[in-house]
Amino acid sequence: MDSPAWPTPPTSGPFCLADQDGYARWRDAKLAAAPTGIGELVVEVADPRKLTEAEYAALLDRCRRANMALYVSTTGGDADTAIPVELGRRFGLTHLDHNPGADPAGITPITVVDGSGYIPYSNRPISWHTDGYYNRSDRQILGLLLHCVEQSPEGGESGLIDHELLYIAMRDAHPEYVEALMATDVMTIPGNMEDPRVMRPDRSGPVFWVDPATGTLQMRYTARKRNIVWKEAPLVAAAVAWIRTQCETAAYCLRGMLRPGWGLLCNNVLHDRTGFVDQAEQRPRLLYRGRYYDRIAGTGR
Fold first, then answer.
1. What is the pLDDT of residue 195?
2. Per-residue confidence band for 1, with pLDDT thresholds at 50, 70 and 90
3. How many CA atoms lie within 13 Å of 129's alpha carbon, on the beta-carbon side?
């Protein structure tokens, strides 16, 4: 067996389709706390490596409300990988996904790499996704940290969506879509047997699932149209089309640019990236990425 079985859909609580009261209470609290604009996510910090108690509390508050926070610091141009490492550690993010591009500590430099063949290491746009959707069920990415060292002069804007808000919109309009997307065989990523660094078999799993350790809703998704197999069912096709439309039109889709010294701390929310253009006379765009098997501490149910 490639990995343990996925958790089965819950039989009670806000993410159980039969528990309308539990869902209504969670939904109302979530919507009341949700930010109305990207500015509400921003926290100014002096040094991400050494947060003050007030800075830590402000970032945690945003993550509790929106599953994400944006920090602004004056560390732009500082290529110290301790910045994401220490910031992540402060929030209980310690179990890093050591993908092939990562350094020994597990931090991955995201920059253009000639001949890589992987879109994150190019200047091409990246469609909506959550990180690590192709990972084993017991190696799912729950936490994500992006720190900007250098930005390109043109492009590179990111879109951000709290997956819990997407879930609410879908459940309110089409609960049958939610049920279809919680099936453990609804989305399959074909195996990769060509690159010896990332060899893996086909991996199937749900789009929405509930982490039994924290009772929190997680999402596994990619808008890619190649190298993905969706379950052949009319409800699945309709649900996937609905998500694509929501990601481009929903009011809860927030857009912004990470500037040098800025960063994103999140529970692996949906995100995308526009294409960008580096200039020969400037340092190339460089972000540090940390992918974690942990969720941000203090944001569970």
1. 66
2. low
3. 19
- Tokens at residue 270, please? 């949906």
Extract the tokens encoding 180: 């279809």
Give the contacts of 194 (CB within 8 A, at least 6 positions apart): none
Query: Exposed/middle/buried for 68, CB within 10 Å: 0-12, 13-18, 19+?
Result: buried
Q: 2.30.22.10, 3.40.50.2000, 3.60.130.10, 3.40.50.1000: which CATH number matches 20-292?
A: 3.60.130.10
**Cβ contacts of residue 64 below 8 Å, gap of 6+?**
33, 298, 299
Return the structure tokens found at 94.
Answer: 């310690």
**Continuous H helices in the chain:** 20-33, 53-66, 82-90, 163-173, 175-181, 234-249
Tokens 């993010």, located at residue = 93
- pTM of the model as a whole: 0.96
The tokens for 202 are 């086909």
Q: Do 49 and 261 contact (CB within 8 A), yes or no?
A: no
Q: Contact 201/208 with Cβ under 8 angstroms?
A: no
Confidence band, pLDDT 50/70/90 cuts, at residue 148: very high
Cα gap 13→19, rounded to integer Å: 6
The 10s digit of each residue's pLDDT in 158-191 is 999 999 999 999 999 999 999 999 999 999 999 8
The span from the CA of 168 to the CA of 24, in Å, is: 10
- CB neighbours of residue 174 within 10 Å: 15
Nearest CA to 38 out of 127, 131, 161, 142 is that of 161
CA angle 298, 97, 43 (to 5 degrees): 40
Q: What whole-number distance in Å separates Cα of residue 22 and Cα of residue 26?
A: 6
DSSP three-state, residue 218: strand
Q: Looking up tokens 């900007």, which residue turns up?
A: 148
